[in-house]
Amino acid sequence: MRTLLTILLMAAIPVSAAEVPPPGTVRLSLAAYLRLVEKAEANARRRTAPPPPATPAVAELGSQSVHLKVGEGSAVVSSTFGVEIAGHPAKTVVLPLTGVADTITVSPPGPATVGFKDGSMVFAATRPGHYTVTVTGSAPVETEAGKATIRLAPALAPVALTTLDLPAGLAWRCPGAVVASEKTASGRRRVELGVPHGKSLVLELSRSLKDDQSRQLLATVTTVTLLRVTASGLRRTEILAYHVSRGALADHTLELPEGFHPDRAATDELEEEVPILVKGRALHIQREETLESDGWIVISGPYEPAAGGIGPVVPSVPVSARYLALSEEVAAQLDPGNDGGWLRVDLADLPEDLESVLKPLEVSAIWRRSTPWDRTVPITVHRLPLAGQPPTIVEDRGTTTLLTVDGTVVHRDALRLIHPRGTLRVVLPAGGVLWSAQVDGVAVRPLERDGAMLIPLGLAADQAMVELVSVQARAVPSGRSSIELELPEIGAPVLSETWSLLLPERNRYRFVSSPLSPVHLKGPTAEMVVAVTTGLHSQLKGTVVDEGGQPLPGVTITLGRPGFQPFSDVSDADGRYWLTQIPGGTYKLVFS
Known about the structure:
The chain is mostly beta strands. The protein starts with a helix and ends with a strand.
């Protein structure tokens, strides 16, 4: 405030022309000074303000319209595209072109180009803005069997319109398009179509018919007879692809061959099962809406061929082509006979719509009929013999037998099987009872047949583990000087077998004879010297542990010295042992 007040006072004092400002200074009026201050502050704000956000790069086709004028054997096309360019896009914009371009105009004129890349017309511009590209040219007209077709480019813009200018006497079809409006004036027909995004359509043109001619049905059908060989028998599937060129088809009527009993049907309207009506050998399927273009039906059911061969399914409309296909659930072979009417073809030789239908059905062979198929022909299907399956083999059998003090015998068999198939036959010793049976850890219920137990192996893989536990109650009487033990009989070859016996320790045993040879197992041992000097009779107890400090059950502890009967015990589940009534002296303690 002090500086501003000084300036005001100075401005109020008149300055004589003789007064000269000091060197390095400039005198300004108050208004000029304020303008200078405002300009300096504005420059300072611009320097500190953040830069404006960059415009995102955009290159899009916003709209497209196609005007197709059809004359006698020719078609003139005019296409207009609206392109939006923003920022500095690096990509080009594809312009879907119908026909061949003669002239190309870009509006507004500027740094923009239109060219061709990979068979497509593309647009590029370096300056942002809205551009309109107008292309005029002609579209090729393909004529076959009295029908002309013109291929339309796909609609790639969010807003797309196709306008047709046709002679009033020309009939037209454009499957997949939606008619927005249709008007006829001055001998011309103007049709506006809405087309699906990204899909190329085909415009079909033909001469208009009179009312009586238009009511006459003109349709053909292509049939595929698929014979599927299963384990339970032969199943037949008929695929019929209809093409209606004129008129409408309200239902489907088929004449069935002998031995064909369809139980399922589907149509292009309902891919699920539809009701069918079979009266005699005639099958009837009613459509919900009339068929005016392309459609299909599929029927299937069990089939028992007649003695003379296989007969055709006869539809109510002319057949343009017939195919015969084989699908194998089990190995089979089809012989088309020697009448010369069947030609072997590949799946790729079929029409595109039939190829897509048959590909997922695992077809192994296809034939095409070169002559009319209107009667039973000598076609035969042979099931090939099944390949021999390897037998079930017991790769390893480990048996543990426990003889209790009351003479009861318990057998536990662990079997490792190779190529398990069906059931495993097991014959138990006399008086034996099967306590449990498991296959790969899953309990199964055995079947008893002809004095043997059948263990179901299920759908096992290449190997399986089987565990059997059987019991013979009081099989060994007390007071016997010899013991005869019998194992369960396994109904499969055994490659390797190990038998471990657990016998009461109150007796001593000597091996006499067996088909199996005994082996002496040696495990790790540990020895130590201990001195027992306290008392007339002492006791020794302790715990056996492993290197990690965990208790070791089943370890034999032997305490002995020369000239004395050794003392022994076996460690229990907690690794504990206890030796009693030990006379004083020095002993060797062995753990094994």
